[in-house]
Design brief:
The chain has seven helices and eleven strands. By secondary structure, the chain is an alpha+beta fold. It has a five-stranded mixed beta sheet with strand order 1-4-7-8-9. Strands 3-10-2-11 form a four-stranded antiparallel beta sheet, covered by helices on one side.
Length: about 230
Amino acid sequence: MKNMIIFEKDIEKVYPGINMGILIVRGISERADCKKEDEATFLKELKKKYEGFTRKELKEQSPVDAYAAYYKKFGQSYHLLAQLDSMLKGKKICDSKSPLLQSMFFNELESMLLTAGHDLNKLKPPLRLNLAAGNEAYQSISGRDVTAAAGDIILSDSARVFSSILKGPDYNTRITSDTSDVLFIIYAPPGIGTPKVRTALKNLEKRIRAFAPDCKTEILQVLDAQTC
């Protein structure tokens, strides 16, 4: 599976030290009776973790600082920081009824590492990590037509671009109740070490196994330009 994702040559030049976490899990059943993670317990633990931090202080913490620096290049703010801030103020965390999507979102907030989930069976490997030219258009997960920002990190398969850091994942490969084989990607811009990414992948795997104990992990790996 070494060539599951190919890093194009300009990636490392523009973003030295960038890496990417990959988790592929097969055989997931999204039955209606799947037990979701307890939201109240998760919220309590998350509030405990970030208790006493101001938003400015959170922005200066790793790994948020690395994302803040990346998004600032494009005149934007790291959206997960705003979601975390809202959640800590008591707003509802996750409206999804899917334990798979809930697990991804909880794990994302816990680690603050940008994560995208895709239905593996709707992708056509090999996958390529590249720099956007600024004309790559696709349908976002909300169904809205978007165009990648020039210089942003994008991910494509042999048919199309299906994800980018700034615009998020696409609609065609989104996780649904029919998804049984899933690909999770953690985008880690420069400044985020491999250990943080690996820990987040393992925690996500653990969350999935809690409601789908018979699933099989095919890949759990952190990749960089040298290994790809």
